[in-house]
Write a structure and sequence with these properties.
alpha/beta; 12 helices; 44% helix; 24% strand
């Protein structure tokens, strides 16, 4: 018996289903179904019990999955060790925010000078859960992520980078701004004084969107949504042009023109973190990249709360 594509078997077992595993592996359900049927034919016994779409490992399945995990560990260790000897290879970096991509763009020239033969491959996904799944599945070596208070953090832990406060922004000439002497307002203004104001929301599955939805649910308030978008810079421009209100990270809002920002009482806060894949080979290139990310000017200043 030969276990080809051991990551396929491991992910099927982890997800307990073909469709979810296919989504995580970025392959078709048909590909995984045929893979599993062929492997079970080679083994000569079922590896999973099938019950209404849910797959449960048999005793034979547990043995094969353990073997597949061993194969993956050996492959990863060998590849990383050879690459480290030659200062070659690649690093898979996951990011969940636009600022994460900007960070990579700023650090890439220095990284390239230090490790000219190491390729930095970027996985961008607005969903923290998707990047966390990529870490767990071994598709990402290092991740820079925005985490909300409701998120379950990676089991292997993480490095705290900073906290980001999420603030309310309105057009500078909006009547509400003229009426407010201070820069801190109760959350209830969203469902009170600003009930009729259109809102620009962050894109679905982003950390800010999940915080927005939780806040609106607590306030029992359904905003009038003018649009959903994934760029804080564009959202700020739209707010300045009078399109409506938005909830934006303070780091973006404090330098924007044509808007006024308000801190919420009991502020909304998300955490930016850096996480290694569990068992990742700490090559010189990987450690260099992690140190440069953690020491970047974005994180050297006090937390933005």
């Amino acid at each position: 018996m030969e276990i080809r594509n051991p990551n396929y078997l491991v992910e099927i077992a982890r997800q307990k289903g073909i469709s979810r595993a296919a989504e995580q592996l970025f392959v078709t359900q048909s590909t995984l179904s045929q893979y599993l049927l062929k492997l079970e034919a080679e083994v000569g016994t079922p590896l999973f019990l099938r019950d209404q779409g849910r797959l449960t490992l048999t005793d034979a399945g547990r043995i094969c999955v353990a073997a597949a995990e061993d194969i993956l560990r050996i492959e990863q260790t060998a590849e990383a060790s050879v690459a480290a000897l030659q200062n070659r290879g690649q690093i898979d970096l996951g990011v969940t925010s636009v600022w994460g991509m900007a960070l990579v763009a700023d650090l890439l020239p220095e990284f390239r000078r230090a490790y000219p033969y190491v390729t930095l491959r970027i996985t961008e996904n607005r969903s923290y859960r998707q990047i966390k799944a990529a870490l767990r599945a071994g598709r990402v070596d290092l991740a820079v992520m925005a985490v909300t208070p409701d998120d379950d953090v990676p089991a292997q832990g993480y490095v705290h980078l900073r906290q980001e406060e999420i603030v309310l922004v309105l057009p500078a000439d909006h009547p509400f701004c003229r009426e407010q002497a201070g820069d801190t307002v109760p959350r209830s203004v969203l469902s009170g004084a600003l009930r009729e104001v259109p809102f620009l929301l962050s894109c679905r599955d982003s950390s800010i969107r999940r915080m927005e939805e939780e806040l609106f649910t607590q306030l029992m308030f359904r905003p009038n949504v003018v649009c959903e978008l994934n760029s804080n810079d564009i959202a700020l421009r739209m707010v300045a042009d009078g399109a409506g209100a938005a909830l934006i990270p303070l780091g973006y809002a404090r330098t924007a023109e044509g808007i006024r920002l308000f801190h919420l009482e009991a502020p909304l806060v998300r955490e930016d973190v850096l996480a290694f894949r569990k068992g990742a080979e700490r090559t010189g290139a990987l450690e260099f990249l992690a140190r440069r990310i953690a020491s970047d000017a974005r994180f050297r200043s006090c937390d933005e709360t």
